[in-house]
Design a protein that fits this description.
The chain has 203 residues and is α/β, with parallel strands linked by helices. The protein has six helices and eight strands. The two termini are 29 Å apart. The C terminus is likely disordered. The structure holds guanosine-5'-triphosphate. The site of guanosine-5'-triphosphate has 22 residues, from helix 1. One of its GO terms (molecular function) is GDP binding. Its main location: membrane.
Length: 203
């Protein structure tokens, strides 16, 4: 019988950086030039096989517009991981990313896995944020960082694989029991973190 592990992930970041586009690329392998700004938040899932298990991402894509900022805690509380997105062509969006990290550290779940995505890397000829800056910052806060392009499907799979691997490796210790539910044969039960299976990650 297949076991399903659920992993709640939220996406945070300035409006227009490409959060919805990243989720759309990951879940539907689709890119829409005319995608509308998110209102409140949207929810999608994607289940990926891993050995003899299924890993189900429960993805909350939050709205980046300032007027929705106060809703964000509803989505990052209880998340195992946060993807904080900036646009490599907009220095301001990197500044906003730092504010999100600060907020997560102050009010987010303890041990939340943080992944930084520098999106729109297909536009590197008009880049404002050097990758070196993002790497140094990510290292300083213990986050993983990757440059992505939702448009050209660059590093999107790798981003989510990285999150999955980090969550599994950390076991999320205290949080693990609450956040990873193992559903076997339709009934839910919690698993000991030490029994978490670590999947090999390529790339
Ligand atoms: N060139 C390029 N454009 C992108 C990429 N990702 C998203 N876009 C474009 O950027 C714009 C904003 O994308 P969204 O996915 O709506 O951004 P968002 O962060 O979800 O915005 P909010 O919902 O307002 O928070 C759209 O016009 C997208 O087509 C990318 O990787 N490359």
């Amino acid at each position: 019988m297949m076991a399903i592990r659920e992993l709640k992930v939220c996406l945070l970041g300035d409006t227009g950086v490409g959060k919805s586009s990243i989720v759309c690329r990951f879940v539907q392998d689709h890119f829409d030039h005319n995608i509308s700004p998110t209102i409140g938040a949207s929810f999608m899932t994607k289940t990926v096989p891993c050995g003899n298990e299924l890993h189900k991402f429960l993805i909350w894509d939050t709205a980046g517009q300032e007027r929705f900022h106060s809703l964000a805690p509803m989505y990052y509380r209880g998340s195992a991981a946060a993807v904080i997105v900036y646009d490599i062509t907009k220095q301001d969006s990197f500044h906003t990313l730092k504010k999100w990290v600060k907020e997560l550290k102050e009010h987010g779940p303890e041990n939340i896995v943080m992944a930084i995505a520098g999106n729109k890397c297909d536009l590197s000829d008009i880049r404002e944020v050097p990758l070196k800056d993002a790497k140094e910052y990510a290292e300083s806060i213990g986050a993983v960082v990757v440059e992505t392009s939702a448009k050209n499907a660059i590093n999107i799979e790798e981003l989510f694989q990285g999150i999955r691997q980090n969550c599994l490796e950390n076991g999320l210790r205290k949080l693990c029991t609450a956040l990873w539910r193992t559903q076997i044969g339709g009934s839910s039960s919690c698993r000991n973190p030490s029994s978490l299976h670590v999947c090999p990650v390529s790339g």
